[in-house]
């Protein structure tokens, strides 16, 4: 009779341990999404970075043309990452970066991804 009781306790302990470990593996959230990466070489964006060199410059379609030609054919996330890399090299005033990047993307007729911010 004691062996039957011990067997029930062993099975109950085994099932409890399995439920706890399976619960921990299922409770983990998905990994965070990776930040977009610019597939083009940053040296190519020197001409684009001239657009951002001065904060007083008026950004229009003609001044943004070098940036637009470099990001042509890229999806919105990659294009945003490329222009952010060009901005990061030249601007130290971090408050205006997102405004300028969004303005350049709009002039290039690219919609930035939802919630996009230059990091």
Q: Helix and strand layout, with pairings?
A:
Layout: H1 2-26, H2 46-49, H3 61-71, H4 76-90, H5 97-107
Helix pairs in contact: 4-5
Describe the fold and architecture:
- It comes from Arabidopsis suecica.
- InterPro entries: Bifunc_inhib/LTP/seed_store, Hydrophob_seed_dom, Plant_LTP/defense-related.
- The model has no long low-confidence stretch (mean pLDDT 76).
- The chain is mainly alpha-helical.
- The relative contact order is 0.14.
- The chain is built from 5 helices and no strands.
- The longest helix is centred in the N-terminal third of the chain and has 25 residues, at 2-26.
Keywords:
mainly alpha, rod-shaped, 5 helices, single chain, 119 residues
Name the shape in a single word.
rod-shaped
In whole angstroms, the N-to-C terminal distance is: 68 Å
Q: Percent helix among the residues?
A: 55-70%
Radius of gyration: 27 Å
The secondary structure category is mainly alpha
> Would you tell me the overall average pLDDT?
76
In N-to-C order, the SSE pattern is HHHHH
Q: What is the count of DSSP helices, taking H or I runs of 4+ residues?
A: 5
DSSP strand count: 0
Beta-strand content: under 5%
Largest sheet: none
Spans of at least 5 consecutive residues whose pLDDT stays below 50 are none
